[in-house]
């Protein structure tokens, strides 16, 4: 069957999966998605996409989509009208607020919803409920990186654009499986290497595809990255490789920082990280001698008990070598979800209004109160609870109600056994999603939302680039765009905001939050885009820090640190460490990718990677059934014997399995940002009878 050209609708959309932010045309006829067509005008990807952006769209028309609100009654869900469901949600949230206080209600915004929808989520929490307890999934991934950037250079976003990464003389990948998690950026790095001789340095406990292509691949002991980063910085300072002029004119605390580096000798780093001294020197020389360095990091750094410190150490290293504020330089935390950057930018954070404006600052509060037409006292100055605290506090009834939008918390949080227990203790739980997710199974009310191809809005990618997406088809059944649901809900709680189009929401944000001052839908029309901060005249900022840093005096800060051991270690009972991460084909809990048979068939089963040396020692063969047990629980799955992992480190994908990897992970977390240390899980492995 083929469709004639005039019957085909071509709609510009932005990918719903990772933070690269690829945009393309979606060709549809009625609800049929005929193909995804990349176009040269796309600012990030041009004519490239990866397998997910190109093919993983079957979920849109899945028969499992939610098409009507559901209310739990006597332990079962029954269909309900929007009027009944929204009235119930409004009434119960206001009752709990009035009876127990605003801070007993927590909101988790979606990293898949639009910027405008993130804004409305926090507006309901702050203005109507009166709490700052609003967060998003960046708590579980890149908040430690953001903290490291706040401490050193000032903005919680990538220092430049993907074009800067392409033009760098040296690209460093740390704890980032770029080829599988951000494939289109990886393709650009591969091309730059091949065509221009760009140098590539990879540091990772797992030998991923980019490691195989690297000029230098280094395998540190897991959770020790802060030590090698500090040792390289010390070597660069001690051996005349630092950018002296830059340090003198643009950086504060140089001497304090230099003093803090005293313990970080090459010998100490070799002992702690198990990286041979010669490799440490080679890496330091590569960095010190390169004209321009981009350093990319991801959850291999952040999901540890001291991920914020390690992220800070990486940014310190870039400062020492003068790699900020020039084309082809800077720190680049690779954002995971397509709009995890936007969810934070637009205020789904416990301590920040949209545009990273502090909730605890009285002047800031007065500004937002005036914009929202209320007395300042109506808005809380107290920092709220984050995702991690909300779930912990549900167990003790400090949190009594949760409103979760598009997040698979019941699968993605660490130690899911405890998470489920907390959810069961809640008085009231609302989930707004496109499927009855594992999280929605705990809800009292489920509100059916729309995926991006059925609505309009903007997403912000990893390089702070704001792009519009347009509806390729109408909402399925009685589902609704999240911004409409939230607007309706607010009206039922006495706040008639009257938004008729998401552009009005963006105009409102632009009128309040400084970094979005010049953002509007006209300037983002079609394939146009803007990287924040955007001045009122519409000038955007692809490369940050060209005129100084985002600090009080415009200077960067070298932030002194101390080495701290990871919170969970191997012992005689749990003698292995479990690493985990994503695969190219799937995304998160497979709620979307798992509904594309062609993709699901490529990786149908969950597995654990075992090193050849460990397999030989334990009698494990490729395909053996094994049981992996942590201090929290056990899972059974097949072993894949591969030299991608080494020694006593195992690796599991995060996507599949029942009960899933977070049945094993624990609640130990980074105390600075409350990010669980997913990648510090001590386990043991046992061979199972063949099933
Ligand atoms: Fe989508 Fe990311 Fe793939 Fe681009 S690289 S098509 S944004 S999943």
TrEMBL record:
Protein EC: 1.17.1.9
Keywords for the protein's UniProt record, in alphabetical order: 2Fe-2S, 4Fe-4S, Iron, Iron-sulfur, Metal-binding, Molybdenum, Oxidoreductase
Residue ranges of domain 4Fe-4S Mo/W bis-MGD-type in the record: 8-64
The protein's name in its UniProt record: Formate dehydrogenase subunit alpha
Cofactors required: Mo-bis(molybdopterin guanine dinucleotide)
Organism (species): Stutzerimonas tarimensis
Keyword Repressor part of the UniProt annotation: no
GO molecular-function terms, A-Z: formate dehydrogenase (NAD+) activity
Family to which the UniProt record says this protein belongs: Belongs to the complex I 75 kDa subunit family.
Record keyword 4Fe-4S present: yes
């Amino acid at each position: 069957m083929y469709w004639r050209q005039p019957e085909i609708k071509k709609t510009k959309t932005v990918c719903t999966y990772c933070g690269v932010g690829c945009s393309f045309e979606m060709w549809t006829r009625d609800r049929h998605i005929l193909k995804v067509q990349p176009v040269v005008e796309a600012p990030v990807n041009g004519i490239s996409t990866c397998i997910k952006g190109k093919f993983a769209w079957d979920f849109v028309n899945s028969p499992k989509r939610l098409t009507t609100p559901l209310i739990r009654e006597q332990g079962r869900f029954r269909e309900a009208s929007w009027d009944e469901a929204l009235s119930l949600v409004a009434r119960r949230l206001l009752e709990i607020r009035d009876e127990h206080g605003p801070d007993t209600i927590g909101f988790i915004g979606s990293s898949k919803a639009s910027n405008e929808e993130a804004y409305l989520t926090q507006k309901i929490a702050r203005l109507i409920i009166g709490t700052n307890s609003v967060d998003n999934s960046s708590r579980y991934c890149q908040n430690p990186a953001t903290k490291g950037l706040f401490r050193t250079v000032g903005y919680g976003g990538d220092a430049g654009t993907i074009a800067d990464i392409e033009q760098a003389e040296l690209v460093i990948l740390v704890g980032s499986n770029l080829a599988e998690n951000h494939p289109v950026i990886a393709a650009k790095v591969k091309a730059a290497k091949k065509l221009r001789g760009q140098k590539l340095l990879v540091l990772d406990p797992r030998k991923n595809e980019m490691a195989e292509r690297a000029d230098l691949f280094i395998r540190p002991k897991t959770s020790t990255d802060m030590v090698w980063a500090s040792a390289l910085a010390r070597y660069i300072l001690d051996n005349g490789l630092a950018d002296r002029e830059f340090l003198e004119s643009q950086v504060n605390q140089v001497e304090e920082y230099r003093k803090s580096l005293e313990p970080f000798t090459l010998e100490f780093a070799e002992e702690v990280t198990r990286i041979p001294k010669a490799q440490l020197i080679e890496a330091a020389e590569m960095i010190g001698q390169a004209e321009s360095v981009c350093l990319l990091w991801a959850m291999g750094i952040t999901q540890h008990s001291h991920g914020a410190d390690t992220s800070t150490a990486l940014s310190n290293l870039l400062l020492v070598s003068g790699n900020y504020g020039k084309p082809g330089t800077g720190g680049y935390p690779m954002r995971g979800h397509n709009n995890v950057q936007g969810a934070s930018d637009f205020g789904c954070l416990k301590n920040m209004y949209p545009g990273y404006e502090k909730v605890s600052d009285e002047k800031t509060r007065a500004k937002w109160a005036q914009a929202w037409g209320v007395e300042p006292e109506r808005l809380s100055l107290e920092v709220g609870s984050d995702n991690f605290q909300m779930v912990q506090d549900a167990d003790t009834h400090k949190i009594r109600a949760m409103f979760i939008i598009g997040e698979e918390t019941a699968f993605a949080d660490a130690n899911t056994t405890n998470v489920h227990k907390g959810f069961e203790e809640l008085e009231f739980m609302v989930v707004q999603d496109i499927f009855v997710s594992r999280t929605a199974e705990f809800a009292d009310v489920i509100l059916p939302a729309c995926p991006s191809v059925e609505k309009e809005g903007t997403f912000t990618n990893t390089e702070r680039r704001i792009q519009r997406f347009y509806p390729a088809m109408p909402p399925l059944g009685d589902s609704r765009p999240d911004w409409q649901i939230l607007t309706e809900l607010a009206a039922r709680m006495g706040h008639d905001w009257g938004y008729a189009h998401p552009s009005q929401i963006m105009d409102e944000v632009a009128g309040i939050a400084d970094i979005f001052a010049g953002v509007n839908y006209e300037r983002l029309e079609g394939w146009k885009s803007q990287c924040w901060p955007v001045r009122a005249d519409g000038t955007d900022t692809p490369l940050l820090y060209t005129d100084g840093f985002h600090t009080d005096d415009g200077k960067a800060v070298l932030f002194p640190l101390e080495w701290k051991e990871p919170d969970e270690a191997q012992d005689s009972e749990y003698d292995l460490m479990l690493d985990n991460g994503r695969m190219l084909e799937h995304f998160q809990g497979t709620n979307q990718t798992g509904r594309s048979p062609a993709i699901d068939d490529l990786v149908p089963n969950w597995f654990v990677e075992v090193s050849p040396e460990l397999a030989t020692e334990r009698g494990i063969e490729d395909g053996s059934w094994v049981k992996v047990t942590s201090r929290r629980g056990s899972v059974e799955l097949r072993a894949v014997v591969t030299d991608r992992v080494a020694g006593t480190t195992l690796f599991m994908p995060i996507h599949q399995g029942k009960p899933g990897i977070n049945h094993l992970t624990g609640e130990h977390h980074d105390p600075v940002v409350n990010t669980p240390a997913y990648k510090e899980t001590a386990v043991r492995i046992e061979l199972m009878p063949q099933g």
